[in-house]
Design brief:
It comes from Georgenia faecalis. 42% of the residues lie in helices and 4% in strands. With 259 residues, the chain is mainly alpha-helical. A hairpin with a 2-residue loop joins strand 1 and strand 2.
């Protein structure tokens, strides 16, 4: 049985010399500042949704690859580069690009074998769960942060693994697994909410201060909250198409428990 390390194991500053880490899996791990020398990394798959958000580089053979990765993702996903728009027209264009992208992906799933939306690839969220999480993300950053609603959450929403661990109230979410039709309905409603907000937003509103829903001491504005929504949308779309590409042709429903 393979050795398993969890959050209770402090490996900071550890040194691995001649260690065989082939096939090892790191999930939600903090690898900031890790130094690897003379390593064989062929076939390594790194997924970092926060890549490029800080000031630190990611060096491969002395080359900072962050800019290359970001530019390639912009090329693969037309419209992604607009996610940092700072004016109302730019934000409306950015959201329209996202709507077109998701519409095409929804059509792709509809054309795939029945049950595809509930397939989990390698323990990740299913397509339906990804849409449910985006419902919650919209409720958090539009409903709770921007609109300052006391009870913004739709019961279909899918919190991430750390939500309950942080002592949050899980009773606001439905205990039953919703049908894919219910998920699509909730998702469409939240997409329309963002579109309606952007249709009316002004430059003055974008500068208005808001509280970060997860870290109230961290200052936000309406604009930075919208940037978070756009970032969530593009990252989760990337996850979704990555897993759709990896699915077996039969589309057999697998384990769809969230990791």
């Amino acid at each position: 049985m393979a050795t398993r390390f969890s959050g209770s194991d402090d490996l900071r500053g550890a040194t691995f010399v001649g260690a065989d880490l082939r096939g090892a899996r790191f999930v939600g791990a903090d690898l900031c500042g890790v130094v690897m020398r003379g390593v064989d990394v062929l076939g390594t798959d790194i997924d970092s949704p926060w890549l490029g958000e800080g000031d630190e580089p990611l060096l491969v053979n002395g080359v900072d690859v962050v800019g290359f990765v970001d530019a390639e993702l912009d090329r693969r996903f037309p419209g992604r580069a607009e996610r940092r728009a700072t004016d109302p027209d730019g934000l409306r264009s950015a959201w329209a690009a996202l709507e077109r992208t998701w519409a095409a992906t929804l059509e792709r799933v509809a054309a795939m074998p029945p049950g595809t939306a509930d397939v989990s690839v390698d323990g990740e969220w299913s397509f339906a769960q990804t849409l449910r999480h985006l419902v919650m993300a919209t409720d958090t950053w539009l409903g709770r942060a921007i609109l300052e609603q006391d009870r913004p959450y739709h019961p279909v929403g899918q919190p991430d693994a750390g939500y309950e661990a942080d002592g949050n109230d899980m009773s606001i979410f439905s205990e039953h697994v919703p049908s894919y039709a219910e998920v699509l309905e909730a998702r469409a409603g939240r997409v329309a909410m963002v579109r309606a907000f952007l249709d009316e937003v002004t430059p003055e509103v974008l500068l208005a201060p808001r509280r970060n829903p997860w870290a109230p001491e961290h200052p936000e504005t309406v604009l930075t909250c919208l940037h978070t929504i756009l970032g969530e949308e593009w990252e989760h779309h990337r996850y979704a198409v990555r897993d759709l590409d990896a699915m077996p042709p039969a589309g057999v429903v697998g384990d769809f428990a969230a990791p």
